[in-house]
Amino acid sequence: MKSLRIMGIIMVAAITVSGCGTAGEITKSQENTESPVTETSIEVTETETETVSTTEPVLFEFNPHVYSPTLAQEIPQDYWDSFYNMCDALRTGETSFECSSKEAYDFCMNTSTTASLFPPACLKVSGDSDDGSEPFENGVGKIYYNMAPEDYVVRQAEFEDLIVGILNSNLESDDDDFEKCLKLYLYMAKNYDYDYEKEDKASDNGFVYDTFMTRMGQCVDFGAVYGYLLLQVGIDGLDIGCFEPDMCHAWTYVVLNGQGYHVDPTWALSSCYGIEDVYMDYFLMSDEDRNQDGCLVRDLSMQALPQFFLCNSTIKLSATDEQYSFPDYSTFESLDEENKILYYRDMYGNEYEMYYGS
Question: Exposed, middle or buried: residue 245 (CB in 10 Å: 0-12, 13-18, 19+)?
């Protein structure tokens, strides 16, 4: 069983979830052995290079219509269609959109929905009428902005540029889904910091948006950010969490090649350990791996789900595959993409390889 434990209390609400509380810095009980970087090593992009140069081809474009097959088990298609209509309207500063029903409208305007699936809109638009008119009527939903519509359009465009920069600075056009998952995991581990003082800060931006813009947050923020980046490139990923007496924590549930896995970007953060290496034992974990950390996968929450707790829905999550389970305290070394081999080191500095091809 891993010795790492992050303990704390989090009160998770629709948009005010803050993440794992900690009494001090996150630590590993074993010192990690320094390892040389080989020619095939991935260079994780720093923030300064997240803006794509105009002289380089843009391989990935912003997707305003992200989709989760897992969430779709509970959310009807007409809700998705209505939500996409709203997203398109928001990008141009419109004040109404075509919507199938009042129930679909409520889903679109839910802060948990926008936080997970369209972050810039969270807390910046609502379904609360400010003039006494009906928010939804005759197949049309109204958008009430909490900022000038033209300013929101600028906010949206800046966010889209940020996402496009992250994707194009870290991914390649021929990456398979495993490589996309890994490279975005390494990107987050190298570029994000844990915010131990988040509870003392006020924000009206929405937790996912804030974390994207500041690269600081707590567990539920990182779980949602990683999930959203995966959704942008067509991989099903959503933040989930557990509420155990000794462990309140959140991470990302990922579906890769038809199999479910747990990915914990928070416990992978290099800055929390004061090292340059990235721990791999929090990447593509099985249920058993997750349980051994004290994060019991029984009564889990899902931020984007209107019912919030999975026990109140028809969604059943499973992560039984262990082909990508890494030894405790193993660290990323390099990636041979041509031969589909990932190299990693154990806590003693010994190098191993994992074949990840089909």
Answer: exposed
How many Cβ atoms sit within 10 Å of the Cβ of residue 91? 18
Regions in the chain scoring below 70 on pLDDT: 1-58, 200, 202
Q: How far is CA 289 from CA 240, 338, 358, in A?
A: 16, 29, 23
Q: Which three-class secondary structure state does DSSP give residue 343?
A: strand
Q: Are strands 136-137 and 96-98 parallel, antiparallel or unpaired?
A: unpaired
Q: Provide the pLDDT for residue 200.
A: 65
Beta carbons within 10 angstroms of residue 306's beta carbon:
18
Give the CA count within 13 Å in the CB-facing half-sphere of 295: 32
Q: Which two tokens stand for residue 250?
A: 């959140």
- The DSSP line for 4-43 is ----------TTT------SS----SSPPPP-PPPTT---
Supply the pLDDT for residue 98: 98
pLDDT score, position 123:
96
CB-based contacts of 202-207 (< 8 A; 24+ apart in sequence): 204/123, 204/146, 205/122, 205/123, 205/124, 206/15, 206/111, 206/114, 206/115, 206/119, 206/120, 206/121, 206/122, 206/123, 206/124, 207/15, 207/16, 207/17, 207/18, 207/115, 207/122
| Spatial contact of 224 and 241, defined as CB atoms under 8 Å apart | no
CB atoms near residue 181 (< 10 Å)? 25
Amino acid letter for position 314: T
Q: Over the range 21-30, which residues count as b (16 or more CB within 10 Å of their CB) and which as e?
A: bbeeebebee
3-class SS at 227? Answer: helix
d(CA 87, CA 64) in angstroms, rounded, equals 7
3-state secondary structure of 109: helix
